[in-house]
């Protein structure tokens, strides 16, 4: 009876649907990876033994490697998205070029990250592996800067539109509901990007990120991963 309840429960069915997608598996793996990164640092700072820390450190590294492999080929999606964004005619120029910059940044990151996977997995060794990794992070950082700029600009436009609506009209209009929905979505994306930019920023030692440690980066990655998981969950509803 209990087995039947679990088997046919809609939440279980939804979870299986999520896990059947590459996106869903990647987001869940990423969440566990960054939770483990935080716990690994936290336990180290608290003076726990190496044996206690080792499983979390292994999860952090192995899940990271698994996700690198899963991302191989995704650079083509970003290149196509950049091309599509550039061809858009009826879009605000600021949002258009921010989208192009974002997708090109991600494409560069994913391309170099896949090359770096060959080295880190031992398939093919490169003398300049560190440089490849750093350049990949620079592309990722750049893509996130464009994404953050786009979100900030979009929130400003939404606020301006809110102000232009008549208060009485706004309470009942469909446009008001759409603006509120769009605002929530953009704010969520902005939070995710602000958390994510700490990861390449810390790895590169960018000004403003040097004072961070693995614990802060792990927490930032956990927050953005949780947002990504919820988004993937909603997509498979």
UniProtKB/TrEMBL annotation:
Its main location: membrane. GO terms for cellular component: peroxisomal membrane. It is found in: Peroxisome membrane. The keyword Membrane applies. One of its GO terms (biological process) is peroxisome fission. Transmembrane segments: none annotated. InterPro entries: PEX11. It comes from the Eukaryota. Keywords: Membrane, Peroxisome, Peroxisome biogenesis. PANTHER family: PEROXIN 11, PEROXISOMAL BIOGENESIS FACTOR 11. This is Peroxisomal membrane protein PMP27. It comes from Drechslerella stenobrocha 248.
């Amino acid at each position: 009876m209990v087995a039947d309840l679990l088997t046919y429960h809609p939440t279980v069915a939804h979870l299986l649907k999520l896990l059947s997608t590459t996106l869903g598996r990647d987001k869940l793996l990423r969440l566990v990876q960054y939770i483990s990164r935080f716990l690994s640092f936290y336990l180290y700072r608290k003076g726990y033994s190496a044996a206690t820390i080792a499983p979390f450190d292994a999860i952090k590294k192995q899940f990271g490697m698994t996700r690198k492999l899963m991302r191989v080929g995704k650079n083509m999606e970003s290149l196509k998205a950049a091309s599509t964004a550039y061809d858009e005619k009826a879009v605000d120029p600021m949002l258009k070029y921010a989208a192009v910059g974002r997708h090109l940044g991600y494409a560069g990151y994913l391309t170099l990250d896949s090359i770096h996977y060959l080295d880190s997995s031992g398939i093919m060794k490169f003398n300049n592996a560190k440089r490849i990794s750093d350049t990949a992070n620079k592309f990722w950082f750049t893509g996130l800067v464009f994404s953050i700029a786009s979100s900030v600009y979009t929130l400003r436009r939404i606020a301006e539109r809110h102000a232009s609506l008549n208060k009485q009209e706004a309470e009942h209009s469909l446009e008001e509901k759409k603006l509120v929905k769009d605002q929530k979505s953009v704010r969520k994306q902005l939070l995710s990007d602000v958390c994510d930019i700490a990861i390449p920023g810390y790895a590169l030692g960018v000004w403003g990120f040097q004072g961070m440690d693995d614990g802060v980066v792990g927490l930032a990655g956990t927050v953005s991963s949780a947002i990504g998981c919820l988004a993937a969950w909603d997509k498979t509803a």
